[in-house]
Specification:
disordered N terminus, two-stranded antiparallel sheet, alpha/beta, 15 helices, about 15% strand, single chain, 11-stranded mixed beta sheet, Amidase signature (AS) enzymes
Length: about 550
Amino acid sequence: MLNRETATRRSNAHKYVGILASLILISPIYADTFDLTSATVADINAAMDAGALTSEKLVELSLARIAAYDERGPSLNAIMLLNPAAIERARELDEERLSKGRRSPLHGIPVVLKDNIDTSDMPTTGGSFMLKGSMPPDDAFLVQQLRAAGAIILAKLNMSEFASGGAMNSLDGATYNPHDPTRSPSGSSGGTGASIAAAYATFGLGTDTGGSVRGPSSANGIVGLKPTLGLLSRDGIIPLALSFDTAGPMARSVHDVAVALGILAGADPADSATLRSDEHRRDDYTQFLDLDALDGARIGIARDFMDSDEEVDWIMEAALEAMRDAGAQIIEIELPEWLLESRGKFYRAIRYREFRAQIADYLETTGPQYPKTLAELIKLSKTLTSRRDDGAIPNPGRWQLMLDEEDSGELTDAEYVAVREHAMPLIRSVIGGMMAEESLDAIVYPTSPTRPEKVDPDPNPGGAPGGGGSPVILANLSGFPDLIVPAGFTGRGLPVSISFLGTAFSEAKLLALGFAFEQRTKARRLPATTPALPSESIDY
């Protein structure tokens, strides 16, 4: 016989089982979850294909994060200008997707651009009050590629003024690191680095002359690629030094960098450097992503760029161990002493003179109200010595550098000619020769030998991108590609990244190695100051 209490419990149990069964029958079974802050391009397309997400909704989610974290919260100040037509364009692309299918993996996906890349519908200022409101005559070639692929230009981003100096400018002030707003996001693509780390967009474009994609990728804990010189067009990008300049994709994953590279790479008649690269480009770099790429790989470690920060070094050693565990052989290499001592001088011999000459070519494309030479920029900069009512502020650090650029000399100078015609080919031969002799698939080193610096540090030109102590300028001097992948964090939560340097047009191999390392270590994290918002997770 059951007592009354036992019978009641069993009756209730049967009732609850019945309710649960009915809920299972009438409720949807969620197979996947879309999470904005971790989604790759593939995840976005899967959610869109399932009808759980639209481009319009995706843009709205991006704008909500910008409102929460760029304008409020940590106030990262990464955005210079939002595209007012972004939502309207998203609706158009949603309709096109339904009627015709998607144009590319970037169809309907918002992307962000450094504000030295021309957009015909939004100003391009180079981060300078001296080009405020300047409307380019047309889109940069890369912007044309993105629009043709169905990408939505969501915003133009804060940057170092004229792509040099610290992560600030006279038009919009400083940008802050989302992992620690007292720290710099690095320059000159600091706005792109901070935006991608804070998940304002899935993918962004920066530019790199002396580390300006790679420094911000490292400081903000994201993936970035400085491609082989000439793989991407420079047409419509404000020049800093065309011997080194290249755009570079920045994203939260190696996969998304690979997607972007396949869309961006291509020959451009307006940039002769791209003509030689056309035979090397691939339409789809994601095909090379391989979880087992490190197994059997030979990786050189350049310890010349270690011993500056014990926490960075510790993470580098852990990264090397992870690669060994994946089957890679780690080879100790030593760069020539003359190269380490002279790389900064070689870099500046080219960089300063070329900016002086080439900025004038770009300024000719601006309206008649804007300066037309570096000397005129310097003259105008001296009229701004305090904050103006329109928000413009002095940027004496960058403007002082302009004086050095103006006094640097001509492109006919013997020093310039010697470095460009002899030193740069020599550096390519030395690095390429070392890799060939040791049968190396890549050379690795810490992208930044030290943790991200404070927002307003004491001047230290030797440790800045492009300075004598910077490892990243070897890729600029040689023209070789350099892939940046998050490797870990310091004790106080600051990102540390590893560089994979390869020979010309070895992007496919570097992406494979970087993908295998990324998937093994999973070192990327959403910054603590920019957490997920309640509406960003969608079950479907």
